[in-house]
Amino acid sequence: MAAAAGGLLAISGEADDPPVRGPANPAYTMASLAAAAGAMIALLARSRGNGDASRVDVSMQEAVSFALVQTANPNVLAWRNEVPQR
Asked: How many angstroms separate the Cα of 14 from the Cα of each of 30, 55, 79, 84?
């Protein structure tokens, strides 16, 4: 569901077939990376004395959309002379 909400399914699979989810569940992988980065930032802030508690709020949809930005880069046309399509 998060892969669709973030837009990653719009660029996956063949153009004539339904969208496919990538291996290793990329939506959960991207959200896990965002959560790990947030936890590390919170721990760093705590070690520097910038507060006792931090709250890390991760949006899986937003994490997936960051993966989409990397995958559906419009510069593919300029770099590879290909039109990005599904």
From this structure: 23, 40, 22, 12
Amino acid at 41: I
Q: What is the dihedral of CA 30, 32, 37, 42, to 10 degrees?
A: 140
Model-level pTM? 0.70
- Token pair belonging to 79: 């770099």
The sign of the CA dihedral 57, 58, 62, 66 is positive
**What contacts 66, CB < 8 A, 6 or more positions away?**
30, 34
Decide: 6 and 67 in contact? Cβ < 8 Å.
yes
E strand segments, the chain: none
9-25 tens-digit pLDDT: 777 777 788 877 777 78
Look at the block and give the residue holding tokens 């892969």: 3
* Dist. CA 42–CA 19, nearest whole Å: 36
